[in-house]
Design goal:
- The complex is a heterodimer.
- Chain A is mainly alpha-helical.
- In chain A, 59% of the residues lie in helices and 3% in strands.
- Chain A contains 19 helices and 2 strands.
- A two-stranded antiparallel ribbon of chain A has the order 1-2.
- In chain A, strand 1 and strand 2 form a beta hairpin.
- The longest helix of chain A has 21 residues.
- The N terminus of chain A is likely disordered.
- By secondary structure, chain B is of the alpha+beta class.
- In chain B, 46% of the residues lie in helices and 13% in strands.
- Chain B is built from 12 helices and 12 strands.
- In chain B, the strands form 5 sheets. Chain B has a 4-stranded mixed β-sheet, covered by helices on one side. Chain B has a two-stranded antiparallel sheet with strand order 1-2.
- In chain B, a hairpin with a 5-residue loop joins strand 1 and strand 2.
- Chain B is elongated, with a radius of gyration of 28 Å.
- Chain B starts with a helix and ends with a helix.
- Classes of the chains: A mainly alpha, B alpha+beta.
- Chains A and B meet through helix 13, helix 14, helix 16 and helix 19 of A and helix 4, helix 5, helix 11 and helix 12 of B.
């Protein structure tokens, strides 16, 4: 009996202890954050101040007792700061420390982004002596204050963004015509009337200033997404680290993988990866045919030539891509080719080495324009003006010049022969 | 095992044939920077100390059977020495670089210089009365002979024709680029004519209905502008051809036995004949032979900078050409499109694997292989077997082919 009790205790021990979370980076090459000189400078400055061991041990301590329910970037960053301070190192900004930890692949760019944002939120200055409007005359004022009071009595520890979104949801449920400025006043009133502590007010006010309601992606949802992706699509081999997924998207602050994880859910990522899986199979096919039937009887079979097969595979991918955008699972999101590639890489459908090659296929339907192609419109316009200024009979010279330029510079776009089917 | 067979195939004939000789003679060779120079070279594997009769090649004059003697006229011996030296080099390339057991097993080849007869499948040499051949070279397939007419069987031979100056007007030249330019000029001329006419008419009408109009199409200024620009354009259009003729080369000749890359090209035909029959001349077969000629010469340019023996422009693998359906036809078999394509494929699969890749590729080809069909399919299948990263490399290949217009 004693033995079986011991046995039960030992088997249950790991369950009780809970899993510790490590956001190790197993996909991304050079961080999107380390492409700028100023950030690399911030990293070396942080290293000079603290040293790698102090940073590493402070972070390890900050993340050691995490469970699925206590995952919170704001708390981790606050702990990291205090652990560093306990070691005698004080930082005004934690970004250099976060860049360092990212460079050592302690986490990926998505987690780094959450930490950087959390550090910014945690540093936001809060005004405790506001000259706010009187909100006591608002309808359901008492019920609204009750929402805030409830915060102080709740025992469960929740992350700042979740608490803030919960408060917002309850407040706007009670008073759906409330304006943002009135919410600010209401929050201050709750603090001023001692319904919430200074600490709670500080957190909520920081969340309000930084508009956390607009940022649904947090450490918990990140961890949940990665966990389910890895469980549903176990990797047969390590796909390696890729710089392709850490490239910053044009006119955006996100890298390609950050966008994937923030924009799409697990299902959508799986759908996108599947279209690349199909493309891969089609590109690898030894033969493709077109068949024509009349009344159920095969009339003609046309075997595609290798390059027709290649272009057919690409056309089918583009068709799949458009179909995905119309799929109700995608809720109006229209994935682009890069999203598909990043999703396929995330699920190990393609390796890091193959990424660049497949990504390069986009050039086939979206060729890069030459300098001349880009500026021909301007050259034409200027030539027309010039032809007016040049006296007779030489007015035609600019247009003749333009014709010669166009004739001697061959376009680099799709030059596939016209006799091909695809 | 393959190496063992190769050693046996190389050593056995040497043992059987006994003593071999070396001979130092002047020949035409290329310098490192691809310039042709006359240099004394050592001819190896000779079995005669009197003439160009070796273990693997016998150089004869025309239809003759006796090897050209070292004491023959200097011009002919110079030619024979050049052919013998470069053929030996080409053979060694296929044995050493590619371990070709087929080349090792090839019977001794007769090389005919100054040979003007056409080839006949039955009679070996076509009748002397038939149109004599100049300015080219060919590799002929082995034949069974015709005992009833006293024609003995023969093995694979390489024939080098004598060079002869031919006026350019006698040759049908496919000047596709010139034709494109001419067509462009024509369309611009037609467009300008319509524009000038419509402008003249609209200005005429507006000056008639509006007496205060500032535009007078009949004014000297307007007439100079309209007529002047038209005259200039017409002159450019009509004088294009005569001007081209004035500056264009007028005579053509090609001394094939004196151009190392042509010698390599012809030997490559023989070396590839285990899969590519010598019965046809197609773009794919010629391109394959060009590729190996380029590999042996270690240059993407064939038969260039050799003006004393050749007015032909040569071939350049780096020419940026876009595929045209007409390249599949026999008439265009000798353009450098396939050569350029294979050279680019070598870059993709890695220069160090290039020759092994192309040599393997021959197994996927037949005499009737087309560029768009079998050649590309063969390249892809060979890549599946030999490329370091088949999937990525195949994509690189297909992308490159797409931008070449295939």
């Amino acid at each position: 009996m004693l033995i079986s009790l011991f046995a039960l205790l030992f088997t249950a021990a790991p369950l009780v202890a809970q899993t510790t979370f490590e956001f190790g980076n197993d996909r991304e090459g050079t961080s999107v954050y380390l492409s700028s000189k100023s950030r690399r400078k911030a990293l070396s400055k942080a290293l000079k101040k603290a040293g790698p061991e102090q940073i590493e041990s402070s972070y390890a301590e900050a993340t050691k007792d995490l469970t699925e329910s206590t995952l919170c970037a704001y708390d981790i960053v606050a702990d990291l700061r205090s652990n560093l301070e306990q070691r005698g190192v004080k930082f005004k900004k934690l970004s250099g420390v976060i860049y360092y930890l990212r460079s050592k692949s302690r986490f990926d760019d998505s987690v780094a982004k959450l930490y950087l944002h959390a550090a910014k939120v945690n540093r936001t200055k809060v005004d405790f002596s506001k000259d706010s409007d009187d909100v006591s005359k608002l309808p359901q004022y008492q019920e609204l204050m009750k929402v805030f009071r409830k915060l102080e009595t709740t025992k469960t520890k929740r992350c700042l963004d979740e608490v803030y979104r919960g408060v917002l949801s309850e407040v706007f449920k009670l008073s759906d015509k409330l304006k943002p400025a009135q919410f600010e006043d209401l929050l201050f009133e709750a603090f001023d009337a001692n319904h919430i502590s200074k600490e709670t007010y500080t957190g909520l006010e920081r969340a309000r200033i930084n508009e956390l309601e607009k940022k649904p992606f947090n450490l918990k949802s990140y961890q949940k997404k990665i966990k389910s992706l890895r469980a549903d699509f176990p990797l047969s081999s390590t796909p390696g680290l890729s710089d392709f997924v850490t490239v910053k998207i044009k006119d955006s602050k996100l890298s390609r993988r950050q966008r994937l994880l923030e924009t799409y859910d697990g299902f959508q990522i799986a759908f996108m990866a599947d279209s690349i899986k199909k493309l891969r199979k089609r590109l690898d096919a030894d033969m493709a045919t077109l068949q024509f039937f009349t009344g159920g009887v095969l009339d003609e079979t046309k075997v595609l030539e290798p390059q027709e097969r290649f272009r057919a595979a690409i056309k089918l991918l583009r068709m799949d891509m458009r179909t995905l955008g119309l799929n109700s699972f995608f809720k109006g999101k229209a994935p682009n080719f890069i999203d598909l590639m990043t999703a396929a890489y995330e699920l190990g459908v393609i390796t890091g080495r193959e990424l660049d090659e497949i990504a390069g296929l986009e050039e086939l339907w979206n060729p890069k324009k030459t300098f001349l192609q880009k500026y021909t419109v301007w050259v034409r316009a200027l030539s027309s003006v010039a032809s007016l200024a040049i006296p007779a009979p030489f007015g035609f010279i600019p247009s003749l010049g333009l014709m010669i330029i166009e004739a001697t510079t061959k376009p680099t776009n799709n030059t596939a022969n016209d006799l091909g089917l695809f | 095992m393959r190496n063992l067979i190769l050693i046996v195939l190389i050593i056995l004939p040497q043992l059987a044939l006994g003593e071999t000789y070396l001979k130092e003679l002047p020949a035409l060779v290329r310098t490192e920077d691809n310039k042709p120079v006359e240099e004394v070279v050592t001819l190896i594997d000779l079995i005669s100390n009197d003439g160009f009769d070796g273990q693997h090649f016998k150089i004869v004059n025309g239809k003759g059977t006796q090897a050209i003697s070292f004491r023959d006229n200097p011009d002919l011996t110079f030619r024979a020495a050049t052919a013998y030296y470069h053929l030996t080099r080409a053979r060694e390339y296929f044995l050493t670089n590619l371990g070709s057991s087929y080349v090792a097993s090839l019977p001794k080849m007769i090389i005919r210089l100054e040979h003007i007869n056409k080839f006949s499948k039955l009679g070996h040499f076509a009748n002397d009365e038939l149109e004599p051949q100049y300015n080219n070279a060919l590799t002929i397939p082995a034949g069974t002979g015709l005992a009833s007419r006293g024609v003995r069987p023969w093995d694979i031979e390489i024939w080098f024709r004598p060079s002869k100056k031919i006026h350019i007007s006698e040759i049908k030249v496919h000047g596709s680029e010139a034709a494109e330019y001419k067509a462009l000029m024509k369309s611009y001329r037609d467009q300008s004519r319509v524009q000038s006419l419509s402008r003249f008419l609209s200005q005429g009408i507006s000056s008639m209905i509006d007496s205060e109009s500032s535009i007078d199409p009949f004014s000297t200024n307007s007439l100079i502008r309209t007529v002047g620009s038209s005259v200039l354009l017409e002159a450019a259009y009509h004088f294009y051809d005569p001007l081209t003729k004035v500056f264009q080369q007028k005579w053509y000749w090609l001394d094939t036995a004196m151009v190392p890359e042509i010698i390599y090209h012809e030997f490559a035909h023989a070396a590839l004949s285990d899969h590519l029959d010598l019965t046809h001349s197609t773009a794919v077969i010629e391109g394959m032979a060009d590729f190996f000629a380029g590999q042996i010469a270690d240059s993407p340019k064939l038969a260039t900078h050799i003006r004393d023996h050749n007015t032909y422009n040569g071939k350049n693998a780096r020419n940026k050409q876009v595929f045209k359906e007409i390249f599949e036809t026999a008439e265009y078999a000798n353009t450098d499109f396939v050569f350029g394509l294979l050279w680019e494929m070598k870059r993709i699969v890695g220069a160090e694997n290039g020759d092994a890749f192309m040599y393997e590729l021959r197994k996927k080809l037949t005499t009737s292989a087309t560029i768009k069909g079998q050649l590309i399919e063969g390249i892809l299948q060979t890549c599946k077997r030999l490329c370091k990263d088949p999937f990525s490399d195949k994509l690189k290949i297909q992308k490159a082919l797409h931008f070449k217009g295939i």
